[in-house]
Design goal:
The protein is of the alpha/beta class and 371 residues long. The chain has a 6-stranded parallel sheet, with helices on both faces. Strands 6-7 form a two-stranded antiparallel sheet. Strand 6 and strand 7 form a beta hairpin. The longest helix has 23 residues. It starts with 9 loop residues before the first strand and ends with a helix. Nicotinamide-adenine-dinucleotide (NAD) binds next to helix 5, strand 6, helix 7 and helix 11. The site of nicotinamide-adenine-dinucleotide has 29 residues, from helix 5, strand 6, helix 7 and helix 11.
């Protein structure tokens, strides 16, 4: 067995560690930065508070990032980076903000629009340095080389990946997640759980990431319900933030697979939030992989204290129920043709990273059970 572990991101974790931003800007040698965020962070005064700390090094704010960022938002952000002659980017927000900032840091280096990269154009070799400050305990984007963009006009959502997308510095301050509603806590928390599970059984799994994945999954199973039930429980918040960055480190190399692949069409077609879209199929995949004899599904279940993949799937299903996740797709009244189209959309190359081969019939059965 041969494997390589590499993680280029400098990670700072802890309540109050957002104070490190000014130092981080100095460390990366930034002079003219753009702060990328979403409107709610400007509205709630968080951007104003940070402005005191970053001094004159940040020359502009792009605050129009929406959930599942569109290629047009990325283009607008890239244009602002060019117009201001920026030499670094600070992303303050959830995965949508961090991904938009990452993609814009690349798009601003060339003349192509962001949509061209979703169509397969080669990303520029040099990307502006990024400082990522996550505000959700979910995507782990602060430690990955992935940026997920949507092209809503074409009904597309897909990941882009390049080494330049690894932030230079990740500042993970759990206090920034305290303002998440219970629903957002649950949605993003299930994203973390799916990262951990999919990283562990990925065909590209390796021992360092396995250890991170199991630790992250345990943290979610022990703390998500607490953070959901009691949003002011800062210990549970801290643990979820720790789970998020740990799961990010776990999947950064092995990459995601089944539930994440299925989440993209579920979000772009039906508007289901990312984490909830991942949660929609993860218990079905735990059962499917177990049934098809994946030893990774079995060892994961055992490592998490369950007798079998089915017992783990039952626990995940109970957690979905307790946190109000949608349990099926019945509300969309999908006909046979839509189910087939959905199943076909999930035959994305990343599905090959699932530990057992997933056929169109498997996907048809899985979605038929949900409609
Ligand atoms: P998000 O960034 O889409 O944010 C959802 C909403 O929550 C937004 O309205 C945002 O403004 C708000 N919000 C964010 N933080 C908040 C806080 N602390 N308090 C109150 N409101 C807050 O949600 P997300 O789940 O973090 O990101 C999802 C996106 O990330 C999807 O596009 C998904 O595909 C992508 N993703 C990327 C990676 C990666 O490695 N790059 C991994 C998984 C998912």
């Amino acid at each position: 067995m041969a494997w390589t572990y590499r993680q280029p991101v400098e990670v700072h974790f802890g309540r109050g560690v957002v104070e490190y931003l000014a130092e981080a800007i100095k460390r990366i040698g930034g002079h003219r930065g753009l702060l990328v965020t979403s409107p709610s962070f400007v509205r709630r005064g968080i951007v104003g508070d940070l402005a005191v700390r970053y001094g004159s090094a940040v020359v502009g704010i792009y605050s129009a990032v929406s959930p599942n960022p569109d290629v047009t938002e990325c283009d607008a952000c890239a244009a602002m980076l060019r117009e201001n002659g920026c030499d670094f980017v600070v992303a303050l927000g959830g995965g949508s903000v961090i991904d938009c900032a990452k993609a814009a840091a690349a798009v601003c280096r060339d003349t192509l629009p962001a949509a061209a990269y979703l169509d397969g154009a080669q990303l520029p070799a040099s990307v502006l340095p990024i400082i990522a400050i996550p505000t959700t305990a979910g995507t782990g984007s602060e430690v990955t080389s992935v940026a997920v963009l949507s092209d809503h006009a074409r009904g597309l959502k897909a990941p882009l990946s390049c080494d330049g997308f690894y932030p230079k510095v990740a500042i993970v301050d759990p206090a920034l997640t305290d303002s998440m509603s219970p629903r957002m806590t649950a949605c993003t928390g299930f994203d973390v759980l799916c990262h951990a599970i999919e990283a562990y059984w990925s065909r590209n799994h390796q021992p360092v990431c396995d250890a991170l994945a199991i630790q992250a999954a345990r943290l979610v199973l022990d703390n998500l319900l607490k953070a959901f039930d009691e949003p002011a429980d800062t210990v549970a918040r801290d643990r979820m933030a720790e789970a998020s960055v740990t799961a990010g480190l776990a999947f950064a190399l092995p990459k995601t697979n089944c539930a994440h692949v299925c989440s993209y069409p579920l979000t772009s077609r039906y508007g289901i939030p990312h984490g909830e879209a991942c949660a929609m199929t993860i218990d079905s995949f735990i059962r499917l992989n177990g049934r098809k004899g994946s030893d990774r599904a079995a060892t994961l279940a055992h490592a998490l204290g369950f007798d079998s993949p089915d017992a783990l799937a039952d626990a995940v299903h109970s957690l979905k129920t307790a946190t109000g996740m949608r349990l099926d797709l019945k509300e969309y009244r999908l006909g046979a043709a839509e189910v087939e189209s959905l199943a076909r959309a999930c035959l994305h190359p990343n599905m090959r990273n699932n530990p057992v081969y997933v056929t169109l019939d498997d996907l048809l059965q899985l979605f038929s059970d949900l409609v």
